[in-house]
Amino acid sequence: MTNDFAFTIKQLRFDEHYAPAPGTRLTTNFANLARGESRQDNLRAALQMIDQRFNDLAEWDNPDGTRYTLSLDIVSIEMTVAGSRESFPAIELLQTTIFDRTTGKHLDGIMGNNFSSYVRDYDFSVVLPEHNRGRDGFSVPEDFGVLHGSLFQTFIASKSYQDHFRKPPVICLSVSENRIYTRTTNRHPVLGVEYTPDQASLTERYFGRMGMQVRYFMPPGAKAPLAFYFFGDLLNDYTPLELISTISTMETFQRIYRPEIYNANSAAAAQYRPSLKQSDYSNTRIIYDREERTRLAIEQGQFAGEHFIAPHRAFLEQWVTRRAA
Protein backbone atom coordinates (compact mmCIF):
# COMPACT_ATOMS: atom_id res chain seq x y z
CA MET A 1 0.00 0.00 0.00
CA THR A 2 3.03 2.26 0.10
CA ASN A 3 2.61 2.72 -3.67
CA ASP A 4 -0.89 4.20 -3.21
CA PHE A 5 0.65 7.60 -2.49
CA ALA A 6 3.69 9.49 -3.73
CA PHE A 7 5.29 12.09 -1.48
CA THR A 8 7.32 15.08 -2.63
CA ILE A 9 9.40 16.95 -0.04
CA LYS A 10 10.28 20.62 -0.45
CA GLN A 11 12.28 22.81 1.92
CA LEU A 12 12.29 26.57 2.40
CA ARG A 13 14.51 28.50 4.80
CA PHE A 14 12.67 30.30 7.61
CA ASP A 15 14.60 33.51 8.25
CA GLU A 16 13.91 37.24 8.43
CA HIS A 17 13.36 37.31 4.66
CA TYR A 18 10.84 34.46 4.64
CA ALA A 19 7.55 34.91 2.76
CA PRO A 20 4.90 32.17 2.67
CA ALA A 21 5.08 30.11 -0.51
CA PRO A 22 1.93 29.53 -2.60
CA GLY A 23 -0.01 26.66 -1.06
CA THR A 24 1.38 27.21 2.45
CA ARG A 25 -1.09 26.41 5.21
CA LEU A 26 -1.45 29.99 6.47
CA THR A 27 -2.36 29.05 10.03
CA THR A 28 1.14 27.71 10.67
CA ASN A 29 3.18 29.46 13.35
CA PHE A 30 5.78 30.66 10.88
CA ALA A 31 3.40 31.88 8.14
CA ASN A 32 1.37 33.87 10.65
CA LEU A 33 4.41 35.95 11.56
CA ALA A 34 5.39 36.67 7.97
CA ARG A 35 2.52 38.90 6.90
CA GLY A 36 1.71 42.56 7.39
CA GLU A 37 3.77 45.69 7.89
CA SER A 38 5.71 44.28 10.84
CA ARG A 39 6.60 40.98 9.15
CA GLN A 40 10.39 41.46 9.12
CA ASP A 41 10.49 42.80 12.67
CA ASN A 42 8.35 39.85 13.79
CA LEU A 43 10.62 37.31 12.12
CA ARG A 44 13.84 38.89 13.35
CA ALA A 45 12.58 39.11 16.93
CA ALA A 46 11.33 35.50 16.93
CA LEU A 47 14.64 34.18 15.62
CA GLN A 48 16.57 36.14 18.25
CA MET A 49 14.34 34.71 20.97
CA ILE A 50 15.00 31.18 19.69
CA ASP A 51 18.78 31.64 19.71
CA GLN A 52 18.77 33.23 23.17
CA ARG A 53 16.69 30.41 24.60
CA PHE A 54 18.90 27.79 22.96
CA ASN A 55 22.05 29.24 24.50
CA ASP A 56 20.32 29.64 27.85
CA LEU A 57 19.64 25.88 27.93
CA ALA A 58 22.96 24.83 26.34
CA GLU A 59 25.04 26.58 28.99
CA TRP A 60 27.97 24.14 29.24
CA ASP A 61 31.18 25.35 27.54
CA ASN A 62 29.22 28.44 26.55
CA PRO A 63 30.48 31.21 28.87
CA ASP A 64 29.16 34.21 26.93
CA GLY A 65 25.90 32.54 25.86
CA THR A 66 26.44 33.00 22.12
CA ARG A 67 28.02 29.71 21.05
CA TYR A 68 25.06 28.37 19.08
CA THR A 69 22.63 29.63 16.46
CA LEU A 70 19.74 27.76 14.89
CA SER A 71 18.66 27.53 11.27
CA LEU A 72 15.06 26.58 10.56
CA ASP A 73 13.73 25.03 7.37
CA ILE A 74 10.05 24.65 6.57
CA VAL A 75 9.50 21.14 5.21
CA SER A 76 6.42 20.92 2.98
CA ILE A 77 5.13 17.51 1.97
CA GLU A 78 2.96 17.25 -1.12
CA MET A 79 1.00 14.04 -1.60
CA THR A 80 -0.27 12.53 -4.84
CA VAL A 81 -2.84 9.75 -4.92
CA ALA A 82 -1.92 6.91 -7.28
CA GLY A 83 -3.40 7.52 -10.71
CA SER A 84 -3.91 11.23 -10.09
CA ARG A 85 -1.94 14.03 -11.72
CA GLU A 86 -2.71 16.60 -9.03
CA SER A 87 -0.73 16.87 -5.79
CA PHE A 88 -2.17 18.02 -2.49
CA PRO A 89 -0.26 20.06 0.18
CA ALA A 90 -0.56 17.45 2.91
CA ILE A 91 1.76 18.37 5.79
CA GLU A 92 4.21 21.05 6.90
CA LEU A 93 6.87 20.52 9.57
CA LEU A 94 10.02 22.31 10.70
CA GLN A 95 13.58 21.02 10.65
CA THR A 96 16.22 22.56 12.91
CA THR A 97 19.96 22.72 12.22
CA ILE A 98 22.44 23.83 14.89
CA PHE A 99 25.54 25.85 14.07
CA ASP A 100 28.32 25.67 16.64
CA ARG A 101 30.41 28.83 16.37
CA THR A 102 33.20 27.30 18.48
CA THR A 103 33.82 24.30 16.23
CA GLY A 104 32.44 25.75 13.00
CA LYS A 105 30.28 22.65 12.54
CA HIS A 106 26.65 22.27 11.56
CA LEU A 107 24.81 19.69 13.68
CA ASP A 108 21.51 17.99 13.00
CA GLY A 109 18.60 19.22 15.06
CA ILE A 110 15.17 17.59 15.08
CA MET A 111 12.64 17.09 12.32
CA GLY A 112 9.04 17.87 13.23
CA ASN A 113 8.66 20.58 15.89
CA ASN A 114 5.70 22.46 14.44
CA PHE A 115 2.94 20.41 12.78
CA SER A 116 0.46 21.65 10.19
CA SER A 117 -2.00 19.60 8.17
CA TYR A 118 -4.91 20.47 5.91
CA VAL A 119 -6.59 17.15 6.70
CA ARG A 120 -6.33 17.90 10.42
CA ASP A 121 -8.04 21.24 9.74
CA TYR A 122 -10.74 19.31 7.89
CA ASP A 123 -11.23 16.95 10.83
CA PHE A 124 -11.40 19.65 13.52
CA SER A 125 -13.06 22.47 11.58
CA VAL A 126 -15.47 20.54 9.32
CA VAL A 127 -16.02 16.97 10.56
CA LEU A 128 -16.38 17.71 14.29
CA PRO A 129 -18.80 20.66 13.92
CA GLU A 130 -20.95 18.71 11.45
CA HIS A 131 -20.98 15.66 13.72
CA ASN A 132 -22.09 17.71 16.73
CA ARG A 133 -24.61 19.95 14.97
CA GLY A 134 -27.99 19.54 16.65
CA ARG A 135 -26.68 17.13 19.31
CA ASP A 136 -27.00 17.48 23.05
CA GLY A 137 -23.45 17.55 24.40
CA PHE A 138 -20.16 17.01 22.60
CA SER A 139 -19.05 13.73 21.04
CA VAL A 140 -16.39 12.51 18.61
CA PRO A 141 -16.98 10.19 15.62
CA GLU A 142 -15.69 6.67 16.19
CA ASP A 143 -13.31 6.89 13.23
CA PHE A 144 -12.17 10.44 13.99
CA GLY A 145 -8.57 10.92 12.85
CA VAL A 146 -8.17 7.43 11.35
CA LEU A 147 -7.58 8.65 7.80
CA HIS A 148 -5.21 11.41 8.89
CA GLY A 149 -3.28 9.07 11.17
CA SER A 150 -2.92 6.47 8.44
CA LEU A 151 -1.67 9.06 5.96
CA PHE A 152 0.88 10.39 8.43
CA GLN A 153 2.21 6.95 9.33
CA THR A 154 2.47 6.07 5.63
CA PHE A 155 4.56 9.18 5.05
CA ILE A 156 6.89 8.45 7.99
CA ALA A 157 7.41 4.90 6.69
CA SER A 158 7.98 6.06 3.11
CA LYS A 159 11.25 6.02 1.24
CA SER A 160 10.87 9.78 0.78
CA TYR A 161 11.05 10.33 4.53
CA GLN A 162 13.81 7.78 5.11
CA ASP A 163 15.96 9.30 2.35
CA HIS A 164 15.74 12.81 3.83
CA PHE A 165 15.76 12.36 7.61
CA ARG A 166 17.81 10.21 10.01
CA LYS A 167 15.38 10.04 12.91
CA PRO A 168 11.61 10.00 13.47
CA PRO A 169 9.97 13.38 14.07
CA VAL A 170 9.24 15.02 17.42
CA ILE A 171 6.28 17.42 17.46
CA CYS A 172 5.96 19.95 20.27
CA LEU A 173 2.60 21.52 21.10
CA SER A 174 0.87 23.52 23.83
CA VAL A 175 -0.85 21.88 26.77
CA SER A 176 -4.65 21.65 26.75
CA GLU A 177 -6.81 24.21 28.57
CA ASN A 178 -9.35 21.62 29.74
CA ARG A 179 -6.92 19.29 31.51
CA ILE A 180 -5.15 19.39 34.88
CA TYR A 181 -1.44 18.56 34.91
CA THR A 182 0.36 17.22 37.98
CA ARG A 183 4.08 17.65 38.56
CA THR A 184 5.99 14.38 39.09
CA THR A 185 9.38 13.68 40.67
CA ASN A 186 10.87 12.71 37.31
CA ARG A 187 13.35 15.28 36.03
CA HIS A 188 15.42 15.35 32.85
CA PRO A 189 18.49 17.64 32.57
CA VAL A 190 17.22 19.26 29.35
CA LEU A 191 13.50 18.56 29.12
CA GLY A 192 13.03 19.49 32.77
CA VAL A 193 10.39 18.27 35.19
CA GLU A 194 7.69 15.91 33.94
CA TYR A 195 3.95 16.51 34.36
CA THR A 196 1.11 14.06 33.83
CA PRO A 197 -2.46 14.95 32.75
CA ASP A 198 -5.58 13.87 34.61
CA GLN A 199 -6.89 12.29 31.39
CA ALA A 200 -6.13 12.12 27.69
CA SER A 201 -7.13 15.14 25.60
CA LEU A 202 -8.72 14.99 22.15
CA THR A 203 -5.40 16.11 20.67
CA GLU A 204 -3.63 13.30 22.50
CA ARG A 205 -6.04 10.74 21.08
CA TYR A 206 -5.74 12.28 17.62
CA PHE A 207 -1.95 12.01 17.66
CA GLY A 208 -2.32 8.48 18.95
CA ARG A 209 -3.98 7.70 15.60
CA MET A 210 -0.74 8.96 14.05
CA GLY A 211 1.19 6.35 16.04
CA MET A 212 2.73 8.89 18.41
CA GLN A 213 3.11 8.85 22.19
CA VAL A 214 3.12 12.00 24.33
CA ARG A 215 4.94 13.16 27.45
CA TYR A 216 4.74 16.55 29.14
CA PHE A 217 7.84 18.35 30.39
CA MET A 218 8.50 21.85 31.71
CA PRO A 219 12.09 22.77 30.73
CA PRO A 220 14.34 24.73 33.11
CA GLY A 221 13.27 28.37 33.21
CA ALA A 222 9.96 27.71 31.42
CA LYS A 223 6.59 28.88 32.70
CA ALA A 224 4.48 25.88 31.65
CA PRO A 225 4.87 22.31 30.39
CA LEU A 226 5.08 21.52 26.69
CA ALA A 227 3.57 18.45 25.04
CA PHE A 228 6.18 16.34 23.22
CA TYR A 229 4.75 13.87 20.70
CA PHE A 230 7.20 11.21 19.51
CA PHE A 231 7.94 7.68 18.33
CA GLY A 232 10.31 5.41 20.26
CA ASP A 233 12.18 6.76 23.30
CA LEU A 234 12.09 10.56 23.61
CA LEU A 235 14.65 10.75 26.41
CA ASN A 236 17.29 8.48 24.87
CA ASP A 237 16.87 8.61 21.08
CA TYR A 238 17.86 12.28 20.80
CA THR A 239 20.92 14.21 21.96
CA PRO A 240 20.66 17.10 24.45
CA LEU A 241 21.33 19.64 21.69
CA GLU A 242 18.67 18.09 19.47
CA LEU A 243 16.12 18.35 22.26
CA ILE A 244 17.18 21.92 23.03
CA SER A 245 16.61 22.87 19.38
CA THR A 246 12.98 21.79 19.66
CA ILE A 247 12.42 23.40 23.07
CA SER A 248 13.90 26.75 22.08
CA THR A 249 11.98 26.87 18.78
CA MET A 250 8.56 25.78 19.98
CA GLU A 251 8.64 27.52 23.36
CA THR A 252 9.33 30.76 21.47
CA PHE A 253 6.32 30.24 19.21
CA GLN A 254 4.14 29.44 22.22
CA ARG A 255 5.33 32.54 24.06
CA ILE A 256 4.15 34.57 21.06
CA TYR A 257 0.85 32.77 20.41
CA ARG A 258 -0.15 31.78 23.95
CA PRO A 259 1.54 34.36 26.21
CA GLU A 260 -1.11 33.81 28.89
CA ILE A 261 0.38 30.33 29.39
CA TYR A 262 3.98 30.42 28.16
CA ASN A 263 4.88 34.02 28.96
CA ALA A 264 3.10 34.09 32.31
CA ASN A 265 4.70 36.02 35.17
CA SER A 266 4.73 32.93 37.40
CA ALA A 267 5.60 29.33 36.63
CA ALA A 268 3.17 26.41 36.64
CA ALA A 269 2.37 25.06 40.09
CA ALA A 270 2.46 21.41 41.16
CA GLN A 271 -1.21 21.15 40.14
CA TYR A 272 -1.56 23.15 36.94
CA ARG A 273 -4.58 24.04 34.81
CA PRO A 274 -3.60 26.20 31.80
CA SER A 275 -5.86 29.12 30.91
CA LEU A 276 -5.87 31.66 28.10
CA LYS A 277 -8.12 33.84 30.29
CA GLN A 278 -5.61 34.60 33.03
CA SER A 279 -4.20 38.14 32.95
CA ASP A 280 -0.87 37.84 34.80
CA TYR A 281 1.43 37.60 31.78
CA SER A 282 3.71 39.69 29.57
CA ASN A 283 3.37 40.29 25.84
CA THR A 284 6.33 39.65 23.56
CA ARG A 285 5.37 42.69 21.43
CA ILE A 286 5.40 40.45 18.36
CA ILE A 287 2.20 41.02 16.40
CA TYR A 288 -0.12 38.03 16.00
CA ASP A 289 -3.80 37.81 15.04
CA ARG A 290 -5.37 34.88 16.93
CA GLU A 291 -8.84 35.44 15.43
CA GLU A 292 -7.46 35.33 11.90
CA ARG A 293 -5.80 32.00 12.66
CA THR A 294 -9.14 30.50 13.74
CA ARG A 295 -10.88 31.78 10.61
CA LEU A 296 -8.16 30.45 8.33
CA ALA A 297 -8.32 27.01 9.95
CA ILE A 298 -11.99 26.77 8.92
CA GLU A 299 -11.26 27.97 5.38
CA GLN A 300 -8.40 25.53 4.97
CA GLY A 301 -10.44 22.65 6.36
CA GLN A 302 -13.06 23.40 3.73
CA PHE A 303 -10.30 23.51 1.09
CA ALA A 304 -9.14 20.02 2.10
CA GLY A 305 -12.70 18.72 1.93
CA GLU A 306 -13.24 20.14 -1.54
CA HIS A 307 -9.85 19.39 -3.14
CA PHE A 308 -8.75 16.15 -1.44
CA ILE A 309 -11.49 14.35 0.50
CA ALA A 310 -14.38 14.75 -1.95
CA PRO A 311 -12.49 13.83 -5.18
CA HIS A 312 -10.89 10.75 -3.61
CA ARG A 313 -13.49 9.73 -1.01
CA ALA A 314 -14.19 6.23 -2.37
CA PHE A 315 -10.49 5.43 -2.78
CA LEU A 316 -9.59 6.78 0.67
CA GLU A 317 -12.33 4.78 2.40
CA GLN A 318 -11.19 1.59 0.65
CA TRP A 319 -7.54 2.33 1.43
CA VAL A 320 -8.19 2.84 5.14
CA THR A 321 -10.19 -0.40 5.26
CA ARG A 322 -7.43 -2.36 3.50
CA ARG A 323 -4.78 -0.87 5.75
CA ALA A 324 -6.69 -1.87 8.88
CA ALA A 325 -7.23 -5.45 7.67
How would you describe this protein?
This protein is an alpha+beta fold. The protein contains eleven helices and ten strands. The protein has helices at 29-33, 39-57, 118-132, 146-156, 159-164, 202-209, 234-237, 240-257, 259-262, 290-309, 313-324; strands spanning 5-14, 68-81, 87-100, 105-117, 170-173, 181-188, 192-197, 213-218, 226-230, 271-272. A hairpin with a 7-residue loop joins strand 8 (213-218) and strand 9. The protein starts with a strand and ends with a helix.
What's the topology here?
Blueprint: E1 5-14, H1 29-33, H2 39-57, E2 68-81, E3 87-100, E4 105-117, H3 118-132, H4 146-156, H5 159-164, E5 170-173, E6 181-188, E7 192-197, H6 202-209, E8 213-218, E9 226-230, H7 234-237, H8 240-257, H9 259-262, E10 271-272, H10 290-309, H11 313-324
Helix pairs in contact: 2-8, 3-10, 4-6
